[in-house]
Amino acid sequence: MKTDRVVVVTGAAGGMGALIVKRFLANGDTVFATDSSDEALDKLRASVAKDAHLHSLAADISDESSCRALAGFVREKSRKVDVLVNCAGYFPTQPFDETSLVDWNKVIGINLTGVFLMTQAMLPLIKGRGWGRIINMGSGSMFDGVAEQVHYVAAKSGVLGFTRSLARVVGRDGITVNVIAPGLTVTPRVRETMPKEMLEAQIKGRAIAREETGDDLVGTVFSLASPDSDFISGQTINVDGGKHML
């Protein structure tokens, strides 16, 4: 297993992102964690006993200057990036006829524009060594749509197209780009905000009839970041307990 990588994780203080950070730290990798607030990142650092391999900086991934500042922080500390995990997400439920342009732009900004800006900012630090990984978090909602998440589903569908096209751009540099499509993943935030009926309906539609947790996704992220996945690029890896069989 490849060790001592430099890994950048967005949405790193969230229920899913924190687990990804901890998995790479446990492997001896250096992790640059970013999220929208210093307070959330402080809690992440406390949860890993202030591991010296963890560096953190708050950033707004939907803002170009903020992403560039984060890239500068990474460059100053390590001068390279091996793995970029675009995990940050914002998934409100909202009727379409009540969605304003401001609402739309916020959801697209975090879930799609943020992936573009982070990738563009970090790519110069990934290129030039013949190896690299970009792992984007999509959503199983891309496959059948969600009536009250039109903006979110549109953004995640954009991430799918972005992933496929970017894979053709950077493949010559030995960099792979893939997207993971989780089912509805029961993080603490999801349990607090999503109706119980919605969570139960997800279970009924799966071949593996249980809730999906962040732990179910970490192994796939870690595998795509390893040399075992050198010849996998432009792919959608479905991790939803067998709800969608594509």
What does this structure look like?
Helix 4 (101-126) links the parallel strand 4 (83-86) and strand 5. The chain is globular and about 45 Å long. The chain has one domain (6-235): 3-Layer(aba) Sandwich (Rossmann fold), CATH 3.40.50. By secondary structure, it is of the alpha/beta class. The model has no long low-confidence stretch (mean pLDDT 94). A 7-stranded parallel β-sheet has the order 3-2-1-4-5-6-7, with helices on both faces. It contains 9 helices and 7 strands; from the N terminus they run βαβαβαβαβααβαααβ.
Question: What labels would you give this structure?
Answer:
246 residues; 7 strands; alpha/beta; 7-stranded parallel sheet; 14% strand; globular; Rossmann fold
